[in-house]
Amino acid sequence: MKKTLILIVLTIGVAAMFALPLNTGQMQLNVGTGFTNYGLPVYVGLDYGVNPDITVGGEASARFQDHGTWVGIYANGNYHFVNLLNLPSNTDFYAGLNLGFDMWLADNEYSNSYNSGLHLGLQVGGRYYFTDQLGVNVEFGGGTVSGGKVGISYKL
After folding, report:
1. Rounded to whole angstroms, how far apart are CA atoms 113 and 104?
2. First-residue to last-residue Cα distance in the chain
3. How many other C-beta atoms lie within 10 A of the C-beta of residue 87?
4. Which 3 state secondary structure label does DSSP give 6?
5. Backbone phi, then psi, for 10, in 5-degree steps?
6. How far apart are the C-alpha atoms of 84 and 130, rounded to whole Å?
7. C-alpha–C-alpha distance, residues 150 and 8, integer Å
8. Burial level of 10, CB count in 10 A (0-12/13-18/19+)?
9. Helix and strand element counts for the chain (H, E)
């Protein structure tokens, strides 16, 4: 058991030495699913490094419910606290704003059940990178997915 724990710690340590935060001009693809009380959400997004602490990006998402589907397109901006908090380079902690449009696509019977429209929201999240390009993410708030989301992040 002790040898296994040492091996795990060493593996994570070596991975951390090679992982870097999103660089200026670098892009990152994010894909995953969410958690909400209203249907199954999925999303795909792209982030762009403006500088080592700020990213801007976009996201398309859909949430499938019994009688229709929410579809959303959002723009977002995030501040990354890696440098400010002196976090390990294989981690990322961020918070930001999103602005987008949600549209309710439904059967005729349910077409007027929900309102489509413009939405402003907040998000807070984090990532853990296993390699210099691949990581997992968790985010609360933001977009059509709303409650939160989990997925993978891949630096391009």
Report:
1. 9
2. 37
3. 15
4. helix
5. -65, -40
6. 22
7. 23
8. exposed
9. 1, 8
Q: State the Cα torsion 65-154-139-52 to the nearest 10°.
A: -140
Residues 87 and 61: beta-carbon distance below 8 Å = no
Task: Please state, in angstroms and rounded to a whole number, the distance separating the CA atoms of residues 129 and 136.
Answer: 6
Rounded CA-CA distance 46/117 in Å is 22
Between vectors from CA 42 to CA 38 and to CA 48, what angle results, nearest 5°? 130
Domains along the sequence of the chain with CATH: 2-155 (2.40.160.20)
List, for residues 17-46, the tens digit of each pLDDT value: 334 567 889 999 999 998 887 778 899 999
Structure tokens at 130: 């296993």
Cα–Cα distance, 94 to 111 (Å, whole number)? 36
Please count the CA atoms within 13 angstroms of the CA of 110 that sit on its side-chain side.
Answer: 11
pTM over 0.85: no
Cα within 13 Å of Cα(36), Cβ side: 23
Over 50: is that where the pLDDT of 5 sits?
no
